[in-house]
Amino acid sequence: MSPSFLHYQKEMIGMATVIDLTRAWPGTASAVLTAALDAIDASDQSPIEVVTRSQHADLLGEVAAGRGARLVAVKDDAPDWAIVNDIARSAQRLLDAGHTICVYSFSPAVKQMVTASATHVGGRITFSPLAPLARPDSQRAHWDAGFMSEDAAAEAVARAIASRPSARALKTDLRPLLEGVDLRFRKESGGFAASTGFISSVLTLAERRGFVQTSGVEPRIEIVLTDAGARTAAAAAGSRATAAPGLAGGSAKSGSDLYLEYWRASNLGPFMTVRTAVYEQIDEGLTQGPKPLKALVSEAVRTVRETGPDAPEKFPWSRVKVFVEGLMRRRPVAMSSDGPVSLTWSNGDVEITSMADHWRLRLDGELVLHLIDQGVQLRIDDMPDLAGALYGRRSDGDLDQAYSVVRRLIQDGLLADTSPTEPLCRMPANSMHPAESALRLALGGQAQEV
Q1: Which own/partner contact pairs does 66-72 have at CB distance under 8 Å and 24+ positions apart?
Q2: Any idea what DSSP says for residue 65?
Q3: Same structural domain for residues 290 and 198?
Q4: pLDDT digits (tens, 9 = 90+) for 321-344
Q5: Closest by alpha carbon to 327, among 292, 286, 284, 356?
Q6: Count of the separate structural domains present in the chain
Q7: Burial (Cβ within 10 Å: 0-12, 13-18, ≥19) of residue 442
Q8: CA 282, CA 300: separation in Å to the nearest integer?
Q9: How far is CA 244 from the centre of its chain?
């Protein structure tokens, strides 16, 4: 969407504006804000609110103040769902004041909230992507041969797209697929991989060699593997299999492998070979009567260790206990006479009489939520990979169980019921209706005026 069109849209509708810069990089945030403000006709004095992370507030404060915009700073570690809440509060405040609103953002979760909410407020809120204002093509990064050769980077793109069963992917999904090929592509590693325009640059290298074709416009660019790209990916896998035949053919990591890396990096197991057995023993133990909270998991783990599936001699059973108890702190599912509780320093003697309904699905759901909070984009065609990561298999039963986990998260109001082609995204907790709650839920402590 061009700045001239945005200017026309604002002028004709006279709408207030919310600009979400929480996903902008420090090196581009100021330029994106300036471009967005230049595209807005502020002559009618309609309010403008700029949402950014606290670490960028000083950088953007002067730019915002120069145009009379109100700056809202969210915590640096705020997850996407909390940012959606902050933006929803800003939007609701403006709606209550009688304004029509346009929300600009890089975030799919924000787009989902706005799109879902529009029907509930008579179309008085609309969404526009910030990506077209982020940078002209001339500002994209020049390739750094010290990072890796252009040929190797182009080959990595071919291998990444070839790892998808459909041999196609959205550009927004390319980085996690590339991380499965080579961890140097992780943005968190910093350096050239985190530079402005990096993904566009690496995609261009693959296009120039005929490995992929692209279609669509930002932010929805689709990448399709060509025959030449498929041959390149197959040849790369073959050469790695020859060099290291024990490494599963040396092909790009599956989605399951990527999900496991995210969980293990945060000490979240998932111990798929024993986790479900521990769940079963927790239920079995409570059939014999109430148990102290402090013994609930430890006794189940001990039973599985003694009678359950075979495990290596040095299997980390103590970590299994810590892992399951950690999930139960994220989502309290152990029921006492006073309701759900989770283990603390002082309540270990509390008697647990039962477990909450669907408690196993809810604990496994915390693993799914962690992936989403880490920026992993999960679509319906990723369910076999999710089942493989959660349960170690991809049988029909495991796939049904993975679907049930996601469905329970949606029914509990923790995930939006998105289109199958859109990634799953968080919705505010305790929502009565996802769209209505996204606009009306006001959670304290996440935002402050600057």
Answers
A1: 67/37, 67/42, 68/42, 69/19, 69/37, 70/449, 71/449, 71/450, 72/447, 72/448, 72/449, 72/450
A2: H
A3: no
A4: 999 999 999 999 999 998 999 998
A5: 356
A6: 3
A7: middle
A8: 5
A9: 33
Angle (CA) 240-243-246 rounded to 5° is: 85
Which long-range contacts link 215-220 to residues 24+ away (Cβ below 8 Å)?
A: 218/129, 218/131, 218/132, 218/171, 219/106, 219/129, 219/131, 219/171, 219/172, 220/170, 220/171, 220/172
Give the C-alpha separation, 221 to 172, whole Å: 8
Q: Which of 177, 143, 183, 141 is nearest to 157 (CA)?
A: 177
Q: Name every residue whose Cβ is closer than 8 Å to that of residue 375 and which is 6 or more positions away in sequence.
A: 176
pLDDT tens digits, 70-87: 888 888 777 878 888 888
Q: Strand 168-170 and strand 220-225: pairing?
A: antiparallel
Which residue blocks in 187-289 are alpha helix, DSSP H?
198-208, 227-243, 255-265, 275-286
CATH number for the domain that contains residue 295: 1.20.120.1790
* Domain coverage including residue 214: 144-252
